[in-house]
């Protein structure tokens, strides 16, 4: 069971409810980050009878406050499924984003499930679980303007809009240097340019674009996802106190089992009706 806890003095953050994300999606590609033939860790799970998860309430649809004030979202349900899978009693405590890392360091919890990046700085302070969601780059076009069959982004006519100076800009310059690249100030400027027709195609973060596409039926993903740890990072993982090695091992076991059983796919389809894979 996952029990929700809140530190004293924590102010509720106002977040728009992503109600539309709570419905199942049509068939789509699914995240597969676990080798089904890999051997499972032999850790005795009784060594991890409980896990104190820390999260935030400002990252919809991953973790945010619902209409009743409770923290809900993909990460919340993932933590709950993990604990059920490994037979651990767990709690979930919500902290402000700028305090959650220090809370883990100070021993206020065992693990953070809040989209904390696997950066060099964070890797020096925490251990990280296996990736449960990688974050690909995706091409987006106005619906009906490109033929999905035989789509080749190397043969595009027109400019590719991208956020100036971003990892996606660097990726385009490395792998699509023969194309016309149009850098713009921000990612939403790129997507809005696509919507109003000032650019022909956008290359953006797939996850954030999926939220935008859920509210802007003008446009669609085209082509497949582009994964690059070097350019886009390792994706979403669970940060663990480095002194809690068995907790990290137990979480990895749980993530592997959830992936193999299809439960991770079920959560992905529930919370991301416009999938980014």
Which key terms come to mind for this protein?
6-stranded mixed sheet, 5-stranded mixed sheet, 277 residues, alpha/beta, elongated, 9 helices
Radius of gyration: 20 Å
Give the DSSP E fraction (strand runs of 2 or more residues): 15-25%
The helix count comes to 9
| Tally of strands | 14
Helix content: 25-40%
Order of helices and strands: EEEEEHEHEHEEEHEHEHEHEHH
Largest sheet at a glance?
6 strands, mixed
Secondary-structure-based class equals alpha/beta
How far apart the termini lie comes to 30 Å
Overall form: elongated
* Poorly predicted segments: 6-27
Spatial ordering of strands, largest sheet: 1-6-2-7-14-8
On the 0 to 100 scale, the average pLDDT is 88
């Amino acid at each position: 069971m996952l029990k929700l806890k809140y530190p004293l003095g924590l102010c509720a953050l106002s977040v728009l409810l992503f109600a539309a994300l709570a419905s199942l999606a049509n068939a789509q590609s699914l995240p597969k980050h676990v080798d089904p033939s890999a051997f499972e860790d032999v850790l005795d799970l009784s060594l991890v009878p409980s896990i104190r998860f820390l999260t935030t309430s400002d990252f919809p649809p991953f973790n945010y406050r619902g209409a009743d004030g409770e923290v809900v979202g993909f990460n919340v349900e993932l933590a709950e499924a993990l604990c059920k899978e490994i037979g651990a009693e767990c709690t979930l405590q919500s902290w402000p984003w700028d305090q959650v890392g220090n809370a883990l360091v100070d021993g206020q919890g065992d693990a953070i499930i809040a989209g904390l990046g696997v950066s060099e700085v964070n890797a020096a302070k925490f251990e990280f679980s296996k990736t449960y969601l990688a974050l690909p780059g995706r091409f987006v076009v106005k619906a009906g303007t490109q033929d999905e069959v035989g789509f080749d982004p190397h043969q595009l006519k027109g400019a590719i809009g991208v956020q100036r100076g971003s990892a996606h800009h660097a990726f385009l310059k490395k792998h699509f240097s023969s194309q016309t690249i149009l850098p713009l100030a921000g990612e939403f400027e790129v997507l809005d340019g696509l919507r109003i027709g000032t650019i022909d195609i956008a290359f953006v973060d797939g996850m954030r674009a999926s939220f935008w596409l859920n509210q802007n039926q003008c446009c669609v993903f085209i082509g497949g996802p582009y994964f690059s740890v070097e350019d886009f990072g390792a994706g979403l993982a669970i940060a663990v106190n480095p002194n809690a090695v068995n907790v990290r091992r137990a979480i990895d076991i749980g993530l592997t089992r959830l992936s193999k059983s299809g439960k991770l796919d079920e959560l992905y389809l529930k919370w991301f009706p416009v999938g980014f894979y």
